[in-house]
Amino acid sequence: MFIVSIICESIPDISIIIPLYNQEQFLIAAVRSIELQSLQNYEILIIDDQSTDNAQEVIKHLQQLNNRILNILLSENQGPFLARTKGIINAKGKYIMFVDADDYLNSLTIMQQSFELAEEYSADVVHFNEKLQETTGESAFTWANPLNDSIQGKYFGLTQWMLNGQGTALHGKLLLRNQLLRALVLIENQDQNIFQTKLYCYEDILLMTAFYVLQEKYVPLLEFGYTYNVRTNSISKSSIAQYDKFIKRVDDSLIVYQIIKQMLSGLSDELQRNIHYQFFKYMKSSILEIALYHQDDAEKKTFICNKLIKSNILIEEFQNKLKSELCGGIAQ
User: Which intervals hold domain Glycosyltransferase 2-like (predicted)?
Assistant: First the structure.
């Protein structure tokens, strides 16, 4: 685990965690969207995962203008899971909000509204609306609505994720910090080496699943508070063009799947089945991308397909579906 000595004059209501890797051109807008919020008792933790651009210069400039910004530079590139973990551990706020460096809050009152709802209802998660758009500003549309329009109790978020595949993103939510810390402990109990593992994909699913296991009260907020920008060179998108990143993407999914499977082993057979189903949907997308990009490279497609099939990540009825529809019958 990571420890940084931080001196605060008062405990912030909200800690905003911004994991950063080579996104200096977007960072100022993300930070500005936080600074303009009506709620001003906050801190911003920027976790620089060894960016190779001018991110450190930008962060230091921002710190000169705002003493509530903390600059945490990792000693080596560790991936978004460990970057966010370090942010959670070093945060001082009662609640945490995650903002990606290339995204922004698009409501000036979203932090205030979320905080007040969480306090009023003793909620450990307040979930608000998001918009997804290209970084050009085009093609904006509603992406992740709250899972329900009424206050819900224990396991609601977990059930919705398993049944509908919804609510697994870390952004678009206000989360109780103590529950996030417990979620990290729960994850480590399933895999003692997870905090030495560089996860680049599916880390949000892992953390939110653990959080939902512990979640006591879910409160929806029907307000558009977050804009998620789609970039063609993001980790998930750039993997389409690079075979080694395909492999990493699949490997990360298998690590996350095994931890979640152990974490939820006491659940009913139906929910266990739904765990498999949701992961199949995620991996189906990855394999489709492989099939499209490497359509003339049977060896590479076979390797990936067999890797998935032998991992037992897919429920039995989808084995033939994977072979015939996604891998063209080449997987054995």
Answer: 15-123
Q: Is the pTM of this model over 0.70?
A: yes
167: region left, alpha or beta (phi > 0 left; psi from -120 to 50 alpha):
left
- Identify the CATH class of 14-231: alpha beta
HEC per residue, the chain? CCCCCCCCCCCCCEEEEEEECCCHHHHHHHHHHHHCCCCCCEEEEEEECCCCCCHHHHHHHHHHHCCCEEEEECCCCCCHHHHHHHHHHHCCCCEEEECCCCCEECCCCHHHHHHHHHHHHCCCEEEEEEEEEECCCCCCEECCCCCCCCCECCCHHHHHHHHHCCCCCCCCEEEEHHHHHHHHHHHHHHCCCHHHCCCCCCHHHHHHHHHHHHCCCEEEEEEEEEEEEECCCCHHHHHHHCHHHHHHHHHHHHHHHHHHHHHCCCCCHHHHHHHHHHHHHHHHHHHHHHHHHCCCCHHHHHHHHHHHHHCCCCCHHHHHHHHHHHCCCCCC
Cα–Cα distance between 29 and 100 in angstroms, integer?
11
Closest CA to 227 of 109, 87, 84, 102: 102
**How far is Cα 308 from Cα 201, in angstroms, rounded to an integer?**
16
| Contacts for 72 with CB less than 8 Å, ≥ 6 apart | 4, 45, 46, 47, 48, 86, 87, 90
pLDDT digits (tens, 9 = 90+) for 203-251: 998 999 999 999 999 999 988 999 988 765 554 454 444 667 777 777 8
Spatial separation of the C-alpha atoms in residues 329 and 148, rounded to whole Å? 40
Taking phi first (over 0 means left), then psi (-120 to 50 degrees means alpha), and beta for anything else, what does residue 199 get?
Answer: beta
Relative to beta strand 218-230, strand 141-142 is: unpaired
Q: Quick one: pLDDT at residue 3? A: 32
Domain ranges for the chain = 14-231, 236-326
